[in-house]
């Protein structure tokens, strides 16, 4: 019995010793991250958007199908001519209905649509940014490690070809073939956004592979794969985080731009689609409460990714 208790005590101490350095590294990393107040602001903004994405019904005053004067479905009625002429309605706080950001021309609450659109923006931004990094970073590492060889030459010539691929015509062809869906929008953005990742990571790898610790790993018999992903990749992660944040922000803006041009999934809520609707209905200069909220929401999400990327670059910098 005493032996079993001694063994369990040793196991507990062993687990504690194993995790204490990792917890300490996380604590030091968080301390460095919070040194940049702009990074904390970006994280707070992104957390708010994440909460909107996870539980929009908790934060939105109505469902997306709510209509001014009529209320929530399944109430079925008709708006009177006077009510229709009052739409889009400016902000109202209970008389004749509750819509803090006003309504659009169909009577839907603008605040509700802004909150429900956060999920689509978060999904596209994170998915396109991660997909871009998953393609660009490994190719950049391989290209840089095998610099001045046929492998490097093949990757760089492929990058040159992709740089000549215009984004908008490519996306038009893609959606013409596969349809206008959120998945196709993500693929179209990612296919043209990984190039800068690849070029920058290649340049960093060309420098890092000449370091003494890489030479030591080669002498010790480490494989090329181990050297690339165990010894070199951790040192290019700082710049990779920066590009991940930039790609996510760029994807959010690109999706909104495409929606504004009519190249978006019209079955999904999006800030770009809200801007396209106000343009097509001719209320740009008449309904500021419909125009400004989606624009600010779009700007804040893109800014939050940039703020977080700036702070993460400092946290993951090996020189710190």
From TrEMBL:
Residues annotated as transmembrane: 38-59, 97-116, 123-147, 236-263, 287-310
Membrane topology qualifier: Multi-pass membrane protein
Residue span(s) of domain ABC transmembrane type-1: 118-309
Chief localization: membrane
Pfam families xref list: BPD_transp_1, OppC_N
GO cellular component term of the entry, any: plasma membrane
GO biological process, any: transmembrane transport
Subcellular compartments: Cell membrane
Classification via InterPro entries: BP-dependent_transpt_permease, MetI-like, MetI-like_sf, OppC_N
Keywords: Cell membrane, Membrane, Transmembrane, Transmembrane helix, Transport
Family: Belongs to the binding-protein-dependent transport system permease family.
The protein's name: Peptide/nickel transport system permease protein
């Amino acid at each position: 019995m005493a032996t079993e208790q001694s063994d369990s005590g040793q196991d507990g101490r062993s687990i504690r010793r194993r995790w204490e350095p990792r917890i300490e590294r996380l604590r030091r990393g968080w301390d460095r991250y919070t040194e940049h107040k702009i990074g904390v602001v970006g994280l707070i903004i992104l957390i708010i958007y994440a909460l909107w994405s996870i539980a929009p019904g908790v934060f939105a005053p109505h469902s997306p199908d709510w209509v001014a004067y009529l209320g929530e479905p399944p109430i079925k009625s008709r708006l009177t001519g006077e009510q229709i002429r009052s739409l889009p309605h400016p902000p109202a706080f209970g008389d004749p209905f509750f819509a803090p950001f006003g309504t659009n021309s169909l009577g839907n609450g603008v605040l509700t649509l802004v909150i429900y659109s956060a999920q689509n923006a978060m999904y596209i931004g994170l998915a396109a940014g991660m997909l871009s990094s998953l393609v660009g970073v490994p190719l950049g590492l391989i290209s840089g490690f095998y610099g001045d060889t046929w492998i490097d030459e093949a990757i760089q010539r492929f990058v040159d070809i992709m740089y000549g691929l215009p984004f908008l015509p490519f996306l038009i062809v893609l959606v013409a073939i596969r349809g206008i869906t959120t998945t196709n929008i993500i693929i179209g953005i990612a296919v043209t956004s990984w190039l800068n990742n690849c070029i920058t990571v290649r340049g960093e790898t060309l420098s890092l592979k000449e370091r003494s610790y890489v030479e030591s790993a080669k002498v010790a018999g480490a494989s090329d794969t181990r050297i690339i992903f165990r010894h070199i990749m951790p040192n290019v992660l700082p710049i990779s985080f920066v590009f991940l944040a930039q790609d996510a922000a760029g994807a959010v803006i690109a999706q909104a731009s495409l929606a504004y041009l009519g190249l978006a999934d019209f079955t999904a809520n999006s800030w770009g689609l809200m801007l396209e609707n106000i343009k097509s209905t001719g209320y740009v200069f008449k309904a500021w409460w419909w125009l400004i909220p989606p624009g600010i929401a779009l700007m804040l999400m893109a800014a939050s990714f940039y703020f977080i990327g700036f702070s993460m670059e400092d946290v993951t910098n090996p020189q710190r």
